[in-house]
Amino acid sequence: DPGLSVLAWTTTPWTLPSNLALCANPSFTYAEIRDIASGKRYLILAARLSQLYPKDASKHYEFLGNHTAASLANRRYSPIFPFLAPSFHPGAEGEGGAFRIVLDDYVGADAGTGFVHMAPGFGEDDYRVCVAQKVVGKEDPRTCPVDKEGRFTEVIGEGLAGRRVKECDKDIIKLVKEAGRLVQSKTVMHSYPFCWRSETPLIYRTVPSWFVDVERIKDRLLANNAQTEWIPAFVKEK
User: Fold this and answer.
1) If pLDDT is split at 50, 70 and 90, which confidence band does 192 have?
2) Which of these, 139, 28, 25, 142, lies nearest to 83 by C-alpha position?
3) Does the reported pTM lie above 0.85?
């Protein structure tokens, strides 16, 4: 339905160019409404209409019907930014892939719109859900178009490549607005991780990692430890 839009929210605009899915809660029922001022149709959790209309909500929209989360699962949508679209084929209906609505219990009703934007390269839940729902694979570097310096790679266009991601928030919001996809923008006070050394903001980002199966070599480790002279000696028994 090209005339119907899903209202999703985020507190990290810099992750929007890396969006690959939208997440809904399987136990929620979502309202389809028509905004009286614009005539546009939206999907939103009914309990979160106050997010969109803080005052006199009923005067600003027309209720059109309800949709269960199950009925929305795997529905495709048009991504806001085209940067990752060439690399992530949406797939046929019901076959997984990117740019569709997925379901997970972690989506709450206490904030936002009942739909959560998902960028699996930059969030623990985003990654977990997108892997489980076969949006992406476990080790897919394409999900993270940000380098180790915290700058967008050349995959991201619109003058964002090479810039630090947190410095791009306002420009990304502007791009979303110019595309006619911005419904609301405001400042929200919330906790955020900072580096304890430099007192600068941190970002979540997937990085390559490897692990050793210690159980398979435990006996050899103990044998070699017995032949090693430790200084101080008590370290040997730790």
Assistant:
1) confident
2) 142
3) no
